[in-house]
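We modelled the chain as a single entity of 220 amino acids. Its sequence is:
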Amino acid sequence: MNLPNAAIRDRILAAAESAFARQGYDAASMRQLTRHAGVNLAAVSYHFGGKESLYAAMVTRRLRSLNETRLNSLEQAEQEAGGRPVPLPRLIELLVRPVFELSQDEAHGGSHIIRILGRSLAEPLPFMDAVLATEFQPTMALFSQAVRRSVPQLSPEDFLWRLSFIVGAMQHTFAVLHRMSELTSGICRNDDREGALRRFIEFAVSAFSAPATLPVAGAS
């Protein structure tokens, strides 16, 4: 039976998510990937052009879906706030909840793509710079502006450092969420998504809300 082009693309993308999540970009074999997808290398070349383009298309598809959810929720929250800053815990939740929810969607490869997104953001491949500039940074910029309105007491320098720390923590969390039990000797569960989400929100809110009181090394 001949599948429509859209169905073939979806099968290739699903196989790519599984292969890249389990083995990483460099180790993933295109032959294994095509075997898992039930297509030949020519089909990958026809639809994506090659390994780099396939990887970029896979990340782009997921980021666009996540960011559409995030931005729609942010717009609604700002409308409800009526010109006031959106509460900080709500902003953090709107930013990260879609990713935690996706990680629970095993039927559609959610845990695979979360690992890939975490790696892509924390250690981006050189050819992914343009993808992240288009698909990740604009959304983060809008959320950053909303968060800034909620913490006007911070200096620009303090705000940007704390934002950088939080984004780094977010990337790390997504990269290791699937193996927290192993990393913590069973103290944390891999499937405790709501617990992880709640703790991340608490951590991020505390990081942005803490007063800048630490002494500067070498200051008189």
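As a brief sanity check on the tokenised model: Residues 161 and 193 are 27 Å apart (CA to CA). The chain has a mean pLDDT of 88.
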